[in-house]
Amino acid sequence: MSVSIPGLAEEPPRPVARVAVDIPLAHLDRLFDYEVPQELAERVRPGVRVRVRFAGRQCDGWVVELGRAEPGMKLSRVEKVVSDEEVLTAGTYRLTRQVADHYAGTFSDVARLAIPPRHATTEKANQRHWPAPAVEDATYQVLPRFPTGEGYLAALARGDSPRAFWQVPAVAEGVGDLHGGVVEAVVATLRSGRTAVVIVPTARELEHARKRLGDVLGPASVATLSADSGRSARYRNYLAVLRGEARVVVGTRSAAFAPLTDLGLVVVVDDGHDAHIEQRAPYPHSRSIAVLRSLNEGCAVLFASHARSTEAHSLVVRGWLHQIALAPAEVRKVTPPVRIVGDDVAREPVAARLRLPSAAFRFLRERLVTGPVLVQVPRAGHSAGLVCGRCGERARCPRCTAPLRRPSRDEVACPMCGYHPPRWECPHCHASALRAPIAGARRTAEELARAFPGVIAVNSSAERIRTSVPAEPAIVVATPGAEPWCPGGYSGVLLLDTELMLARPDLRVVEKSARRWLAAAALCRGPREGGTVVAVGPTGEPALQALVRGDIASLVDRELEERTRAGLPPAVKAVRVGGDAAAVTEFLDNDEFPDVDILGPAEVRSDPDPEVAALLRVPLDRGKDLVTRVKHATAIRSARKEPGRLYVQVDPEVME
Question: Is the pTM of this model over 0.85?
Answer without folding.
Answer: yes
